[in-house]
Write a structure and sequence with these properties.
By secondary structure, the chain is of the alpha+beta class. Helix content is 46%, strand content 16%. It has a 6-stranded antiparallel β-sheet, sandwiched between helices. Helix 2 (26-41) crosses helix 4 and helix 3 packs across helix 4. It starts with 13 loop residues before the first helix and ends with a helix.
């Protein structure tokens, strides 16, 4: 893949690079580069813009764009830009390994949100990142919402810290060794962060204020038993305001009850 498409947090060993180069299929690499770039940018891009962003010549991707459009993965806008269609989303939903979890979570989450009137989302780990599977918005006119399908840091989010806390020590070390946020920490900061994860696992919940946004508050619990193969986190995300609970821990029993119901229906107990 083009080196311009790699994030700072994705560090490959030399053996990984060599293995990928050995089995690389240039046309497939180019197609994935285009799809991933359009997904990240979330706006239509012309052939020239795509080529420039990927460090390629426009002629290199001309036929490729035509094939992706003909197969229904891209559509061409009136200004000549290319945008993703819903085909990738449909494929992911049809074959998602988390489909059962999605079905189990939606109704309990909606019921809880109706009662506590705060937004919540369900997340899992996906390729060293936190993937939001489901988001249910608060009925309040002003609320905090996390987009379903969005990816976030496992280090800098409550959902991520919950998921890291329930990994085995080896799995946790492996993942953190590839996260730039963790690698930038001093030795003392890393020690404190790992101690925090141990405390999260001991408590069975995680809480933070102003972790990513000033005025944000997050309270999360794990979904399922520590022994379940599928690991998920259920998190209430809210803003400090006059109509928000003074103590977010008032909502912890409802959050745990919802997580237990999701786990029961999904068979994760």
């Amino acid at each position: 893949m083009s080196t311009t498409r790699r994030s700072a947090s994705e560090t490959d060993t030399s053996s990984d690079v060599e293995r990928r180069a050995k089995y690389a299929v240039p046309a497939v690499d180019k197609a994935l580069d285009v799809l991933e770039l359009l997904s990240e940018q979330a706006v239509p891009m012309t052939q020239a813009q795509l080529a420039r962003a990927l460090g390629r010549e426009p002629t290199e991707i001309f036929r490729l764009l035509g094939v992706l459009e003909a197969r229904g993965y891209l559509r061409r806008e009136s200004n000549g830009g290319y945008a993703l269609t819903l085909k990738l989303f449909e494929l992911s939903r049809t074959h998602s390994p988390h489909e059962q979890l999605l079905r189990a979570a939606t109704a309990p989450m909606r019921d809880m949100v109706d009662r506590v009137r705060e937004s919540c989302h369900l997340s899992v780990l996906h390729r060293d990142q936190v993937l939001v599977l489901v988001q249910v918005d608060s009925p309040k006119p002003i609320r905090l919402s996390v987009e379903a399908g969005s990816l976030h840091s496992p280090v800098d989010t409550i959902s991520g810290q919950l998921l890291l806390a329930y990994l085995s020590e080896a799995e946790r070390e492996d993942m953190l060794s590839r996260r730039a946020e963790y690698l930038r920490m001093t030795a003392a900061e890393r020690s404190a962060f790992l101690a925090k994860l141990d405390k999260v696992r001991e408590d069975g919940w995680a809480y933070a204020e102003d972790l990513r946004y000033i005025g944000g508050r997050d309270l999360g619990v794990p979904v399922g038993s520590p022994k379940s193969r599928t690991r998920a986190a259920l998190t209430i995300a809210t803003l400090k305001s006059k109509d928000a609970p003074e103590d977010l821990f008032e909502l912890l029993p409802a959050l745990k009850q919802c997580a237990d119901e999701v786990a029961r229906v999904a068979g994760l107990n």
